[in-house]
Amino acid sequence: MHGANDLPGLTVAFFRKGAQDAELSERMSFAATVVQITYTDVEGENACTVWLDRDPIEAEVGASAEAEIELAMSAETGISLFAGRVALPIAILNGEVTYRGPVRKFLRVVPIMQSFDFGLFRGQGTDLTCGAQAS
């Protein structure tokens, strides 16, 4: 099982695995935005950026000035979101996730993520060979 400090890389791996499925990637690209996810309690590099404005979608560890939407959350909330235990709109309503920018663009495609490999966040299938390391 990976620790909280691996969360940006794990998030990148999650989106990169989704990008490998041509249909899922195309559907996620309908968001036409760039999203930065920051884990507020992670030491070191605590952000990742997901480009949902292209097909295939892309993700990299680190913040990007290109981000139109910025999400901030604790590592625990992030794991719960990506493991499917908490819905992003509810986490936003409860104040567990803060955002800047037109978050509705991302929320439109969040249901598509249910088809992604949540096993990465459940301690299963944690093989990150899909390229979580910086290229």
From TrEMBL:
The record's SUPFAM superfamilies line, in alphabetical order, gives: SCP-like
Q: What's the protein called, per UniProt?
A: SCP2 domain-containing protein
Q: Where does this protein come from, organism-wise?
A: Paraconexibacter antarcticus
